[in-house]
Amino acid sequence: MTAVSVHRVVTGREDGPVVVLSNSLGSTMAMWDANLEDLESHFRVVRYDTRGHGGSPVPEGPYDIDDVVDDVVALLDDLGVERAHFVGLSLGGMTGMRLAAREPDRVDRLVLLCTGAHLEPSSAWHDRAGLVRSDGTNAVAEAVVARWFTPALLASDPDLKKSSEAMVAATPAEGYASCCEVIASMDLRHDLPSISAATLAIAGADDPATPPPHLAEIAEHVLDGHLLVVPDAAHLANAQQPGTINPAIIEHLTRERP
């Protein structure tokens, strides 16, 4: 499949190192709002919407992991960026792992949040794709957001629950379903030992979608991996605990090389 020109926004320090932010399934670049100000003070920040999401094109599916990676390579080429840090959550983290394994010269350092190298069973992802194609993304919005944040946070912040469910429901059905199929067909476990980029794997302690063992597996099997488990955080840990996660990302991306 041909790469698509994804919707992107570039902010932050014009003279800073480039960091690319890659969103989760069912979200847009707005999922990084709580992280943006801190990152912009250190980096040239490139946010984009994964194909089929937000303002990006919605090619007819199915897609695979290399399709979404091709889009990132095209984005970097379009911006004239030879090498960048990459920060991805969930589907964005899967994109980062495959990018770092397949195109090692394009990735400097890697931050992987709330993701996994292989998410079983694949039948569950095909089932979700089928449901969304038949009934739309509104059919899964409530269940998806219930995994994004801890129950206590959702109970205390009804506006967050409402806006997050609206974000999922606004995702084009074909884009969401086709990205479910990316996850269904993806197995990056064999890629992990070839990832040479220094990698920080961040898990939400309360994440039901990709619990900490998924991130521990990544940190253990890449060449230079470190694990951070963040308390009181579910799947969108970056949004729930930016006070912990923002400094960890900045420290990982800016520390002196050994």
From TrEMBL:
The EC number(s) this enzyme carries: 3.1.1.24
Presence of keyword Coiled coil: no
Keywords: Hydrolase
InterPro entries in the record: AB_hydrolase_1, AB_hydrolase_fold, AB_hydrolase_sf, PcaD/CatD
GO molecular function terms listed in the Swiss-Prot or TrEMBL record: 3-oxoadipate enol-lactonase activity
Highest taxon above the source species: Bacteria
AB hydrolase-1 domain location: 17-238
Any matching Pfam family: Abhydrolase_1
NCBIfam families (alphabetical): protocat_pcaD
Annotated PANTHER family: HYDROLASE, PUTATIVE (AFU_ORTHOLOGUE AFUA_2G14860)-RELATED, MONOACYLGLYCEROL LIPASE
Protein name, entry field: 3-oxoadipate enol-lactonase
Encoding gene (name): pcaD
